[in-house]
Each structure stands twice: as C-alpha cells, then as structure tokens.
Amino acid sequence: MKTLKYSLYFVLCCFVLLFAACEPKGLKQEDVFIQEGALEEMLAAENPEGYKIYALNEFLDTFMTEQGNFASDTCPYRERSYDAAHDLYLYSVDTLPTNGKGIYIRGRVTTDDYAGNFYKSLVIQQIVDDQQQNLRISVDLGSGGGMYQMGQEIIIRCNGLAVGRYANQPQLCVPSYNNNIYAMNASQKVGWCPGRIPNPVFRRATRMIGTPDTTKLQYDELTLAELFEELPLKPTTDAAGMDKVRKADGRLVRIKNVHFTGEFDDNGTLAKCDTLHPDSSSNANVFAPTTNNIGYPQSRVIAHGSQKMMCSCSEYAKFAYYYIPGADRHGVADCPQYSGTVTGILGWYLDKASDMATNKLDGYEWSVTPRGIPGIGVADIQMVNDHDDPWIPKEFDPKDYQ
C-alpha cells in the first residue's frame, strides 16, 4: 500500500512539473517594444542585403507612380478613377519588391479607432525639418488602436506590400480587386484599387519603437484662411497640383475659430440639413446619418467667415447620430452660436475623375476627420456658445420622431 502511495506521489509530481513547463512565459516590455538603441542592430540582422529607412514623402516619391503597375486594358482600375484629359489617376497601386534590400518607413500613430471614425486604418506622422509628413495605412485589423495606440512610434518593413491612392489619398496597402456588381454606379467602380493589409502580414512587418507618447505628436494649429494660404483650395489639375494635395493628406491639424453652419455638400451645392430621422434621411442634422450602406464619408460644413470646409464622419462611428454643435430636433438655427476648434486628420477626397476633367472642383474636397467628440474617444471638437457654455454632445432621441 505504501509503495502504491509513493508511486502516485511520483506521478502527480511529474504532472505538476509538466504543466509548469507548458505555462507561457510572461511578456516583458523589451519583448514588445524595441528601444531606439537596439533598432539598428535588429534591422541589420534581418536584412543581410542592407536596408533603407525612407522619410514618408521620399517613400511616395520613390515608389508611388501616377499610373501604378496595375493599369491594364483587360483588368483595369475602376473606370471613374482616370482623368484622360490630364492623365491623372485618383486610384493607383504600385507593388513593392519582395526580395532584396529592406524598405522601411517609420512614424508615430496619430489616429485612434475607439470612436469608430478610423475603421481598420491608421495614419502615421513623421517630423522632418520641423514639418509634418504623414501616410495612411489600410490594415484589416480590428481594434487596431488597442495594439497600435495613438502616440506609438512604429517601423514597417514594406517589402511585398504596395503603395497606392484611394480617392487620391496615398496609403500603404495591398492590391485589391472590387467586383461588387451590385454597388451604386457599379460599372464605374469594378476594378483594382488599394486594399487592406491582412492582419498577420502587417503584424509581422511592424515593430513598435519605445512606448506610446502622445506629447510627441505635432498639431498644426491654424485658421481656415491660414490653411488655404498654405494649400490650394482648388488645386491645379496637373502633376504639381496633385502632388501638393497628396503630400498634405493625413496632416494632423487643429482648425481654429470655426462653427458648424448646419449645411452639407449636395453634389457640389451646399444645402441645409433637415430634421428627419437619420435612419431615413442622409441629410439629417447629425454628424453622419445613413448612406443606406453605400459607405461614403458623410460631411458637414464648418466655417469661419467666408471660408468653408468639410468635417467628415463615417456613418458607422459611435457618434454618427449625435447632433452637430448647435443643432437639435428643431433644426440648425443655433449652430452659429457655437464656435471653437475642430481637430483631426486633413484630407482631400475625390473619387470621380470626371470632376477634374470638367473643372468641377469646388474646394469641398478638403475635409478634417475628427477622431472623436467629448465623451467618445478623443475629444477633437471643442466649442462654446455665446455665453461660454461648453458644447455638450447630445444623441438624437428616436422618440422625437414618433
């Protein structure tokens, strides 16, 4: 009996030791975040043929061509992407070499996806000679802000990926073919365009340098008048004009002294928002009412004097059905009473090349996309009324529409 008891003790001890050996080792900070001093050694080890870290604008100049390498007579880009009159492409894809010298970019994450306005996308910022350079990254990563937090510096090995433009906005991506024949204007949209980098591919290619530090993000604070002194409200439809707006895309800005006008862009004409239910009216006076799942970014007008610009929001954002500042179920009459700042990512969005060919550019292609509002994500919209009372976001109440 005693022999059996000791044998059982021996077997149990073996099991305990076995399970202890299988327990995963806890991660340490150095396992996740690379320190600047160790970066050069790491890059040299994984690139026996050498490597280069490109500044973001240098990366675009080196690898992103106007036509890309996916233009084809038999399998083209989407039809509406090409302006034959000026030989300009709003959509393009250039693949990057898989082998050979390592191709790297680095930058600090400026976006946050908690509020849902940057779904499966990041923007990174690099400061060169005290000036911002920025690039969008399209990545199929749910809750990307949980892993790549705002203020986190990352370095990406771009070999085997692609760089291209979606609605004229440059981004790191992979080639994607859209064959949705049921989309609105499907005949104009079927074709090649930039697509999201698969989650495991992006994670293998990306390292985090140090820990997140939002204090190192640079915000360009300026009025609309100052912004359009630096950038063309209506760029020239040539290579130089497009280069200016493409290099400005993704810039982190804080637009000062603006208010919402209660208007939206109705195909090139500004119209007043209505008070209908945002489930049924794409013109409701909230940030982003329904597009009936078409998915284009909704925009509401901000202004300072005669200068106007769009504030862009996704209908899938958590604050999409919140009233714009000064609006309520009665209308938009009080919008001019609330003024302040709108912070976010600058963009110049155009997905229809015929607007360039027929000289229909009106300046409303420019937009700022906030990362959130007070109480939901990053508080990028800060406004007060004439009595210095702060704007308190309010969601529409379905009971008001019964």
Count of separate DSSP helical elements:
10
Low-confidence stretches: none
User: How many angstroms does the end-to-end distance come to?
Assistant: 80 Å
Largest sheet: 12 strands, mixed
Report the helical percentage. Answer: 10-25%
- Going by helix content, strand content and strand pairing, the class is alpha+beta
Mean pLDDT: 90
Shape: globular
Task: Give the amount of beta strand, in percent.
Answer: 25-35%
Query: How many E-type strands?
Result: 25
| Rg estimate, integer Å | 25 Å
Question: What labels would you give this structure?
Answer:
402 residues, alpha+beta, 5-stranded mixed beta barrel
Task: Describe the protein's architecture and organization.
There is one protein chain. This protein has 402 residues and is α+β, with helices and mostly antiparallel strands. It is built from ten helices and 25 strands. Strand 7 (121-128) and strand 8 form a beta hairpin.
Task: Give the SSE layout.
Elements: H1 2-22, H2 29-32, E1 33-34, H3 36-46, E2 51-54, H4 56-63, E3 82-83, E4 88-89, E5 92-95, E6 102-109, E7 121-128, E8 131-140, H5 144-147, E9 153-157, E10 162-166, E11 169-178, H6 186-189, E12 191-195, E13 197-198, H7 199-205, E14 206-209, E15 220-222, H8 224-230, H9 239-248, E16 252-260, E17 263-266, E18 269-272, E19 298-304, E20 307-313, E21 339-348, H10 354-357, E22 366-369, E23 372-373, E24 376-377, E25 381-384
